[in-house]
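WP5 quarterly update. Target: Nucleoid-associated protein NdpA. Source organism: Proteus mirabilis. Length: 46 aa.
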Amino acid sequence: MGGLTVNFDAKLLGERIFWDPATDTLTIKGTPPNLRDQLQRRVSEK
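Structure tokens (predicted):
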């Protein structure tokens, strides 16, 4: 399994970035265009 790196401004926590400690889930609302492009490219490769 590969690594994962996530960077964001602390002020986004609770605004666009949400962490649920009960499920240890991180949710991003409104993904940045560069991340969205990377995700779309990966999905289309499969």
